[in-house]
Amino acid sequence: MITRIRLVFHRLFRRPAVTGPYPIYIRRLPTGAVLDMEDYLTAMLTTLADNADLLDLLDEMARDRAEARAHDGWEPEGLYVEQLLAALGYEIPVYGDRVVGLAERLLAVAPARAEGAPARSAAGAA
Asked: What does the pLDDT read at residue 90?
């Protein structure tokens, strides 16, 4: 409950780093950052709940995972996950100048680099 209250206050006083199609909020952590993508996840769960075929696929996956059996190397849930990802998608688009805005916000919350830590070169980052 406290986490949810903190999230509400964070959203009241901060603007999203990305406004659409799915808002992305960034919150600083002592060791990094949290990307809040609740709107994206809500849209995906709603799509799942509204689509009977996808819901059946998820149910089939849950039933298969609940079966107790020895591992034989075959993991059918991998196929279910692949089908769900193909239907729902797993990428969040960021358009135009919001790419730079997102990068700047992430840099602003990044923890300080440890003394003596090597910097990544532009060539090595690719």
From this structure: 87
Is residue 101 within 8 A of residue 17, CB to CB? The reply is: yes
Kindly state the DSSP code that residue 15 receives in the 8-state scheme: -
As a whole number, mean pLDDT of residues 45-68 equals: 89
Task: Tell which phi-psi region holds residue 32, choosing left (phi > 0), alpha (psi between -120 and 50) or beta.
Answer: left
Please report the DSSP string for 65-107 in residue order. Answer: HHS-----S--HHHHHHHHHHHHH-------TTHHHHHHHHHH
- The neighbour count for residue 72, using CB atoms within 10 Å, is 6
Pairing outcome for strands 32-36 and 25-29: antiparallel
Quick check: pTM over 0.70?
A: no
Q: Measure Cα distances from 58 to 30, 52, 66 in Å.
A: 36, 10, 12
